[in-house]
Amino acid sequence: MRWECVIGLEIHVQLKTKSKIFSGSSTAYGAMPNTQASYVDAALPGVLPVMNREAAIMAVKFGLAVGAEINQTSIFARKNYFYPDLPKGYQISQFEVPIVGAGSIDISVGEKTKTIGITRAHLEEDAGKSLHEDFQGQTGIDLNRAGTPLLEIVSDPDMRSPAEAVAYLRKIHTLVRYLEICDGNMQEGSFRCDANISMRRPGDELGTRAELKNINSFRFVEKAIEFEIERQIEVLEDGGKVVQETRLYDSDKHETRSMRGKEQAHDYRYFPDPDLPPLVIDSDTLADIKKSLPELPEEKTARFICDYQLSHQEASLLTVDKTTAEFFEAVLEKHSSLTAKLVANWIGGELTARLNKESLTITESAVSAESLALLLSRVNDNTISGKIAKDVFNSMWETGDAPDNIIEAKGLKQISDSGAIESIVDEVLARSVTQVEQYKAGQHKVLGFLVGQIMKESRGKANPAQVNQILKQKLES
Amino acid sequence: MLHTLSLVDLASRLRDRSLSAVELSQHFLDRIDNASKLNAFITVDPEQVRTQAESADQILSTGDSHVLCGIPLAHKDIFCTEGMKTSCGSKMLDNFISPYDATVVKRLANAGMVTLGKTNMDEFAMGSSNETSWYGPVLNPWSEQRVPGGSSGGSAAAVGARLAPIATGTDTGGSIRQPAAFCGLTGLKPSYGRVSRYGMIAFASSLDQAGPIARSCEDAALLLDAMSGHDPLDSTSVNNAPSTASAQLANTISGLRIGLPKQFFEDGIDPEISRAVNVAIETLKSLGATTVEVDLPNSAAGIPCYYVIAPAEASSNLSRFDGVRYGYRCEDPVDLADLYERSRSEGFGAEVKRRIMIGAYALSSGYYDAYYLKAQRIRRLISNDFDTAFEACDVILGPTTPTTAFGLGAKTDDPISMYLNDIFTNTVNLAGLPGLSLPVGFDNAGLPIGMQLIGKFMQESILLNVGHQYQNVTDWHKAIPQEYQA
After folding, report:
1. B276-301, pLDDT tens digit by residue?
2. What does DSSP assign to residue B202?
3. Is B91 considered catalytic here?
4. Interchain contact, B319 vs A82, CB within 8 Å
5. pLDDT tens sequence across B72-108
């Protein structure tokens, strides 16, 4: 009999506020240990938290974007446990009344679209970091991260495959970057994920779940869940029972292993934090936040399809993040004669390939939207061919020079003079007697070879359409 | 004698330069030295006192100074003071030098007040006798075999013996008012949110308030006005203008309606206390006040409710004392669990540990609803009782404590009987209201008796006004223990 897996995700999104959620310290990543830890972050005796409203506004943006109920009055609670990187001995979080209630988001896997429920999203503070290296057997504590605002987004157990889980994770990742509430950097831990996984026979009640902690890349999410599914099936088919526990994914060994069982589970002794009054978002603020929401990925995709006559796939590719979409529209805006398809192909092709190769984001592209627009306008007006344009693009990337200068300096202008093309064609035909005979005998596929020879002779500069036309004329005359 | 002069008199001498702040503070430093047996202070730093006094003199000489400039005061050792030990009466913080000033400390320093030192207290403010302090008990200046009350026992003993003209205290369930009553002083617990809690080491965050322990309502009003006001560093501080109680002391109390809760005058109260309070009521009537009986039906639930909520919050507030970043750390911990266990069991005293355990239990899964949540509902009922009572009156009056100062060691083995000492005071904290204790006489043993006035939210000025009018026609507040008169 088949097994069905049931997956729910808890995503921790680091909110992009300048200062921490309950103190004025900077949240910038990568500073020297403990240089961004104030008295409040270090939990000195007597200090008190003060809520950073910006974090609440970001949480509300997310809530509105997933059509969730916003709790205009939400409550901060203390989650009590001891750990050296948790200076107060409790984490300020939200428990019974989170700022964002139930919402949902649509995901696509292959051709299928599915709605994933979002149970809730709540604000909380991040902990510091324990540093286990370089302290001769002791542990160092870095409190720079302590107090960084997090939005924990809890999904319903609605996913049924690792692919769905990854699609959901990507969707949320795209969304929080669109909303500009998170930088989405998984390596630096700005976007982290825990997965709850259980198995059941289709139609049965939910099985016992295991929780996978801190999986820090899309690839690992998929692999970790795949491993965990296999592990649980094996346990169940051997007649065993899955135990409720927290497991850690080891990406080197590609396995999950038990971190703590149910009996070691903490009793967090949640209670409302008496240092913080209820967090109130009044209706005016809510309306202002609503107005400030940017165009969201789905709206943008639909608009691109409609306004630019792009396919769904092209439009989705361009809207995968806001900066790509902006780049695309910036190119089009520079030269209204350009077709959206040409620009889309270039961004999806050459530009993306180069960015990936250099591990850069589109905002760091060495070729600006303006330069790319210039280059493509030269393809459009037949100054150069698409193929030559790729070489020019590479030169632009490396030298930062303007496309026209490169075309000029390297003599790459397309040859559209029929006389000049004719003489090249004649030259090639003269030395390709065999192929000409083959063509005349009906083997028309040699045409490609001949075009290639002519283009090579012109060093790629001959206008391909003209070459084709003249060549056919000559062969058939 | 400088230690018998009111703050107003001291201020006028400082201003006309017939008295310097250095002289004045030295007078009190000498008195502190001579009264060291009371154990009222944990830390006194004469050098720092001199520096602060000199700088106050400088400001005074410009003629543009705050009314309290140059006046010395003592801070309860629960307030963080930059560069000075802030122990909270605990071994846990015996080595803790605060890198910052509490808002209260900062405000009073900015006014030019001179910090004489830090006063002894029950460990982490948990106690009603000042016997849980790691620095040993404080003696009551009226009788050395008696406790001064707690948790602000050091501040009360210091002002009672005139070792300081005024002091700060904190009150979570009666910790200003009860020691004020035991030492013959005027102590005010302001409304919750009136005074910033920033830099005041938290016991129970939803109940803690700082206030003055003074010799008179007039002095208390001056200090309250200077220490109160909104603080952006404390999200629970009320966004009101600072108190202006001093300006309202002279108002007439004719027509004032005094509510007398029958629950405050039932059996179990020392008859000498009842008698003194009743005499005080007659005095207030003679000043034009009227009385009306009011009902606080849920008063009896105050103690159990308080002893769930306060320990619950404390169990969490005291988690930060873990031996990791500051404070006491056990020797040679073998691992993390050992570090936590031994640092905390060696660093905290018995009463603190008892309350952490009670609190952790009340919050634990499966018990939360039965204890913490139920206590919160009772708290709401207690608060509603006051609202209803205040429909019929302007202030509520009763005894501050059921007994006068008890003997040292008399209740240390019986926590419940110790807790019951707060029976009239802790409901006021639960409701977030202001409460004032003022002296209204002595019992047969010569121990001071305190009377409590409870006001509506943010109406400290009315309490101080009533108290001041009473003190205008009585002398109880001027009494000084024999030994400390000269």
Report:
1. 999 999 999 999 999 999 999 999 99
2. P
3. no
4. yes
5. 999 999 999 999 999 999 999 999 999 999 999 999 9
B443 in Cβ contact with B404 (< 8 Å): yes
DSSP-assigned letters across all residues of A391-422: HHHHHHHHH---HHHHHHHHT---B--HHHHH
Q: Kindly give, in sequence order, each residue whose CB lies less than 8 Å from that of residue A65, ignoring residues fewer than 6 positions away.
A: A175, A178, A179, A293, A296
For A388, residues 6+ apart whose C-beta sits below 8 A from its C-beta are A407, A412, A414, A460, A461
- Would you kindly state where each structural domain of chain B is located, as residue ranges? 2-258+391-484
- How many angstroms separate the CA atoms of B205 and B216, rounded? 28
Please state the rounded mean pLDDT for residues B13-34: 97
Helix then strand count (H, E) for chain B reads 15, 11
Mention every residue, 6+ apart, whose C-beta is less than 8 A from residue B56: B14, B21, B65, B69, B70, B112, B113, B114
Residue spans of chain A under pLDDT 70: 1, 262-263
| Helical (H) or strand (E) element with A7 | strand A4-14
Whether domain A418-476 has CATH 1.10.10.410: yes
Whether B181 shows a pLDDT value over 90: the answer reads yes
State which H helix or E strand residue B118 sits in.
strand B114-119
- Report the distance separating Cα B339 and Cα B331, nearest Å: 8
d(CA B377, CA B381): 6
Q: For the domain made up of B2-258+391-484, give the CATH fold.
A: Amidase signature (AS) enzymes (3.90.1300)
Active site residue B151: yes
Q: What is the pLDDT of residue B307?
A: 96
Say what the pLDDT of residue B73 is: 98
Facing B100 at nearest CB: one of A39, A82, A90: A39
Instruction: Provide the CB-side half-sphere exposure for B115 (13 A, CA).
Output: 29
Token pair, residue A246, equals 């927290």
Question: Is the CB of residue A50 less than 8 Å away from at least one CB of chain B?
Answer: yes
CA angle B34, B120, B148 (to 5 degrees): 80
Strand B257-261, strand A210-215: pairing: unpaired
Phi, psi of A471 (to 5 degrees): -60, -50
Edge to edge, the sheet with strand A255-261 lists A103-109, A112-125, A149-155, A4-14, A191-200, A210-215, A245-250, A255-261
Domain positions in chain A? 4-288, 295-410, 418-476
| Residues 6 or more apart in contact with residue A18 via CB below 8 angstroms | A26, A27, A54
> Position of tokens 């109940």?
B207
Q: Which residues of A touch B363 (CB under 8 A)?
A: 80, 269-271
Out of A433-447, B321-335, B405-419, pick the least confident.
Answer: A433-447
Q: Where are the beta strands (DSSP E) in A306-366?
A: none
CB contact under 8 A, A271 and B98: no
Q: Residue B446's pLDDT is what?
A: 97
Rg of chain A (C-alpha set)? 29
Average pLDDT over residues B312-337: 96
**B228 catalytically annotated:** no
Q: How far apart are CA B91 and CA B389, in angstroms?
A: 43
Residue indicated by tokens 């060495």: A366
Give CA–CA dist B119/B159, Å, rounded.
Answer: 10
**What is the mean predicted confidence (pLDDT) over B185-193?**
98
Check B87, B151, B237, B315 and give the catalytic one.
B151
Q: At what angle do helices B350-363 and B302-317 cross, to 10 degrees?
A: 100
